Amino acid sequence: MKVRTRMAPSPTGDYHIGHIRTLLYNYAFARKNKGEFIIRIEDTDRERFIDGAIDRILDVISDFGFDWDEGPRVGGKFGPYLQSERLPIYKEYAEKLVKLGHAYYCFCTKERLSELKAEQERKGYPVTKYDKHCLSLTDEKIAENLKNNLPYVIRQKVPEDREIKLKDEILGEVKFQTKDIEDGVLLKSDGFPVYHLAVVVDDYLMGITHVLRGVDWLPSTPKHLLIYEALNWEPPKYAHLPNLKEVGGSQKLSKRFGAVFAHSFLEEGYLVPALVNFVMLLGWNPGDEREVFSLQEFIKEFSLERIHKTDLVAFDREKLLWMNGYYIRSMSLEALYDALLDWSKKFNVNLDVEGYSKEYVKKCLELVKDRMRKLNDFTDLTSYFFAPPIVNRELSERYIKDPSVRDKLLSEFYKLYTDIDSGKWGKDNLDKLSHELILDLGLKPKEAFMTLRIICLGKEATPPLFDVLHTLGKRTVLERIKSFI
Ligand code: GLU
After folding, report:
1. Is the pLDDT of residue 57 over 90?
2. Which of 42, 86, 197 to mutate to test the pocket of ligand 1 (most atoms within 8 A of CB)?
3. How many angstroms is it from 10 CA to the middle of ligand 1?
4. How much distance in Å is there from the Cα of 444 to the middle of ligand 1?
5. Catalytic annotation on 255?
6. Cβ distance 195 to 226 under 8 Å?
7. Which residue, of 18, 100, 113, 415, has the greatest Cβ tally within 10 A?
8. Which of 34, 175, 255, 446 is catalytic?
9. Please, which residues have CB within 8 angstroms of residue 108's CB and are 6 or more apart in sequence?
10. Can you tell me the distance from the alpha carbon of 145 to that of 151, in angstroms, rounded to the nearest whole number?
11. CATH class of 393-484
C-alpha cells in the first residue's frame, strides 16, 4: 500500500513554527517511502475561522520550500480538500452512524445544556459531561422533531465502559477508558461537522495511511478509533509527536521569548534551510552527533523509531540563532547577497543602501558576514558604511582621557591619511603607517585605534579597523575625522 500522509491546517490563525515541524515529519515520511503528501484544510470551525488565513498558511508552507501532491491549489483525485466544501459527505456519515446505533439525534436547547453544566459544576463534578438525555428519545419522537424542523445536533454514542487500545507508532500501547469520554457532538446544528467526525471521514476517504500529529491530539484519538470501528473502517497508523516548549520549564512557545509564527521567523531573517534543519531536531535525532542536514539528507535518514517518546521538546532559540549563523557563514558571498536582497524585498525591509553600488554593498557584507546571525543583523552591523555615525561623546573619550592628546592624535591621523595616495589606500599600508604614527606619538594601539574606530564608525565592536577604513575609502574617512575635530 502506498504511504499517504497529510497535514490538515485549521485556518483559525497563522501557522506556528510547531506546525512546520509536524508538517516536515509528515512530508519526510511520505517522501522517504515514495508515497504522497496531502494538504487538507480543516475549516469547519466557523466561529474561529479567520479570513485570509488559508492563503497565508499555504503561502508560508510554500515559502518553507514544501510542495504537496494533492490539496488546495493543486487539486487531486480525492478533492475537494477544503472541508467546508464537503458538508454533504459528513452529513451522510453522521446519519449512517445514527443508523448503525453509534450516534443519535440530540434536540437539547442551549439553555438546557448550560443549566446542565451549571448544575454539574455546582455538584463539583471534575469534568462536566452531556447527560445522554436524548439517547432515550423514541423513534417516533425523533421523527416528529425532525418533521417539525427542530434544530438538532448528532452526538457520538460512546460506549459506557470500555477500554480502547491504541498502538501508537511512537508511544507504543496507550489505553483509554470510555467512561472518561463524553457523547460529543459530531454534526452541529448548522450542518457543519466537528473536527472529530471530519478528520476520520477524510483521513479514511483520502486513503491516509499514517497520521503524524502533536501529542496534544492524543486524547481525541479514542473518539476517532470508535468512529472507525463503528463504520468498520481500518484506522490509519498514528504517531503522536512531542510538542514544543520554551527552554527551562514546560511553557508553550510564547511571543514573550521571541517569534512563534512561521512567517515571523522568515521576517526576522532566518534562512529556510537553517529553520528546516533546526525543526528536524525537535523530536528526532539521527542517533549520533550530527546536527546539520539538508532536507534531502533528512528524508533519507528519517524514521519514526528515532522520534523521542516524550510530551515536550525544548525549542532552543539560542541554538537556532547559532544554526542560522552557521548557514549564513557557509553561504557564498554572492548567494548571501541575493538572499539578503530577496528578503528585504519580500518583507519591505529598508537596507539603507540606496545610492551605493552592488560591489560596495557586497564588500561591506563580506566584512560582517561572520558576525551575522540573522539577515536583519545586516543594517545594524553595517550602518556606518552607509551613513556617518552619531558619535557618543563619552564613548569617544573612553580610551584617551586627555583632550589634548586626543586632539593631537586625530589631527595627526588626518595629516597622515591626507598624504596617502588614493592608489595606496590599502588595508596593509594603512595598518603599517598608522602603527608607525602611534609609535611616534607614544600611544598604545588599543587607546589610539579604539578612539579612531569610535569617531569613524561610532562603535567599539566592528570588523578589523583597517579593513573597514579601506572599504569606506579615503575621502569618507577624512571627512569623518574632520567633522569630529
Ligand atoms: N486540524 C487539526 C489541526 O489544526 C489537525 C489535527 C490532526 O492532525 O488530526 O491541527
Report:
1. yes
2. 42
3. 7
4. 65
5. yes
6. no
7. 18
8. 255
9. 116, 130, 133, 134
10. 8
11. mainly alpha
Which residue's CA is minimally distant from atom 10 of ligand 1? Answer: 9
Looking at this protein, which amino acid is placed at residue 258?
A: G
Hey, what CATH topology would domain 1-72+242-330 get? Rossmann fold (3.40.50)
Reported as a single tens digit per residue, the pLDDT across 123-176 is: 999 889 999 999 999 999 999 999 999 999 999 999 999 999 999 999 999 999
Backbone angles phi, psi at 360, to 5 degrees: -65, -45
Strands 163-168 and 172-177 come out as: antiparallel
Q: What is the DSSP string of 278-313?
A: HHHTSSB--SSS-----HHHHHHH--GGGB--SSEE
91 CB-near residues (< 8 Å, 6+ apart): 187, 191, 193
What pTM was computed for the model? 0.94
Q: Does domain 86-241 have CATH number 1.10.10.10?
A: no
Read off the pLDDT of each residue in 449-459 and give the average, rounded to a whole number: 97
Ligand 1: does its nearest atom lie under 6 Å from the Cβ of 198? no
Identical fold, 1-72+242-330 and 393-484: no
What nine digits make up the cell of 370? 561572520
Atom of ligand 1 nearest to the CA of 22: 8
Regarding beta strands 4-7 and 312-315, do their DSSP bridges make them parallel or antiparallel, or are they unpaired?
unpaired
Count CA within 13 A, CB hemisphere, residue 167: 3
Ligand 1 and 213: CB distance under 6 A:
yes
Collapse the DSSP code of 270 into the 3-class scheme (helix H, G, I; strand E, B; otherwise coil) and give the result: coil
Residue boundaries of the structural domains of the chain: 1-72+242-330, 86-241, 332-386, 393-484
Averaged over 305-331, what is the pLDDT?
A: 96
Q: Are strands 243-246 and 185-187 parallel, antiparallel or unpaired?
A: unpaired
CA distances from 146 to 87, 105, 107, 200 (A): 19, 9, 9, 26
pLDDT in tens, 181-235: 999 999 999 999 999 999 999 999 999 999 999 999 999 999 999 999 999 999 9
HSE, side-chain direction, 13 A CA sphere, residue 83: 29
